[in-house]
Design a protein that fits this description.
440 residues, alpha/beta
Length: 440
């Protein structure tokens, strides 16, 4: 009989101990180290136990499994609200800047904290600050100064911040110019209920700290993309963030949900991308990486997906990959209905140190899905591997390819941490509540 992992049952007790240790870190650092070593050792034992079961096992009492799944979901939500693990927990991005109480004066330090394939994205680090004071978007061709649209189209580098909380309803897609950072820290900023963000044929973009949701199809209108150019836009799909032919892109600490098409799509030769610390919920086709099976230019694509939480209400494409090289590392997958990671056209997928919690549906336990023609066995040569992942509730990953470490060199972008630490590494995924004079 398949059973729930003992790690899930033990998790609340472990978190309580770790919170106490974090509170008194200066006097109890030795105890913290012992707790972490104990957790890692216990996880190794649990992996051995889990290996006795596979996707063919049946569940005598599905209510027990369902209860355990509900418990870990509640724990994940509560730890995000409590906000205990603010810095110094091993997440290299957050540890780089979140311990600084004076972060509001050192905002641009964030640009030096990226990891993975998008680590060289500087955004607007070398430019001036631009303060958005007006949530309006009355005229996409002639935007008013003080609006987000007026900020992102400028030709010079800019670090864009917000004077206050605001909900921005865009009439048409927000077309960004190169060397821009949108930094939502210190305000509760929603881009919602209209068009959303387009990153097209540009470079060096950072998007941080936004709530992006309920994005709609727009288009068949004139839209400005720079101070000197505007043009006709056809229908936009309604993605939360659309990356098209662009490079050096970092999407970090955003909360995304409920868009018409994808939450994040990267296509048409885009590369050097890091998608990190985001919280994804309530969506069908979450993330598409690669334009089509026949678009060979996407073979250059390299994307890092790290420290994200794929949460409630998700169905598939976390991500769905084509052609390129994809490093999926230390993410927390607590929900999917069809599958988690899919692909076609021979992508290389390197899954390391993730936690995969399968749904109760016995026909949806597989993490992976290959999209191939009927009877086509060529996928067996695609390089897909699972290395150090934690599989819970019957989850299983179907590997393929040669299996040699050298074949994954182009799909490796940072050192994976133990999957036993995923709960801590992703505990603050999503847009943060940052206030002046306190750690973010």
């Amino acid at each position: 009989m398949a059973v729930a992992s003992p790690r899930i049952i033990a998790l609340p007790a472990f978190l309580a101990v770790l919170m106490f240790v974090n509170e008194f870190a200066l006097t109890a650092s030795g105890e913290e180290s012992r707790q972490l070593r104990s957790l890692m050792n216990s996880t190794m034992a649990e992996r051995g136990e889990t290996a006795k079961f596979n996707h063919r096992d049946t569940v005598d009492d599905p209510e027990v499994i369902a209860a355990d799944v509900d418990m870990i979901i509640r724990n994940s939500t509560e730890r995000r609200r409590l906000g205990f693990f603010s810095c110094g927990v091993g997440n290299p991005i957050d540890d780089c800047w979140r311990c600084d109480r004076n972060w509001i004066r050192n905002r641009r330090r964030l640009a030096d904290c990226s990891i993975g394939f998008g680590r060289n994205a500087v955004g607007g680090r070398d430019g001036r600050y631009y303060v958005v004071t007006d949530p309006g978007d009355d005229d996409p061709v002639n935007p008013r100064p003080g609006t987000l649209r007026h900020a992102v189209i400028q030709d010079r580098p800019l670090w864009i911040v917000f004077k206050r909380d605001m909900v921005i309803i865009l009439k048409q897609e927000l077309i960004m110019n190169s060397f821009k950072t949108i930094d939502g820290r210190g305000a509760n900023v929603h881009i919602a209920n209209g068009a959303c963000i387009t990153i097209q044929f540009v470079t060096n973009i950072i998007i941080h700290g936004l709530h992006i949701h309920d994005c709609k199809r727009t288009g068949n209108a004139m839209v400005r993309s720079s101070p000197s150019h505007y043009g006709w836009r056809t229908i936009a799909d309604g993605d939360g963030i659309s990356i098209f032919g662009s490079s050096h892109i970092w999407i970090d600490h955003n909360s995304l949900s409920s868009c018409t098409d994808g939450l994040i799509d990267a296509i048409m030769g885009s590369t050097a991308i890091t998608i990190s610390n985001n919280y994804f919920t309530h969506h069908n086709e979450v993330m598409l990486l690669g334009h089509s099976d026949t678009y060979a230019r996407d073979r250059i694509m390299q994307v890092t997906i790290a420290y994200n939480h794929f949460g409630e209400g998700l169905i598939q494409r976390m991500p769905r990959c084509r052609h390129g090289y994809f490093h999926v590392v230390n993410n927390d997958y607590t929900h999917w209905e069809m599958y988690a990671i899919g692909g076609s056209a021979n992508p290389t997928i390197n899954s390391q140190g993730n936690r995969y919690l399968a749904p109760t549906n016995p026909y949806a336990k597989e993490v992976t899905k290959r999209v191939v023609n009927s009877g086509n066995g060529r996928w067996r040569h695609w390089n897909w591997r699972s290395d150090g992942d934690l599989m819970l509730n019957g989850a299983y990953f179907t590997p393929s390819g040669r299996g040699a470490a050298a074949s994954y060199a182009r799909a490796s972008s940072l050192a994976a941490k133990s999957s036993s630490l995923v709960d801590i590494l992703t505990s603050q995924a999503g847009a943060l509540s940052c206030r002046r004079g306190a750690q973010c």
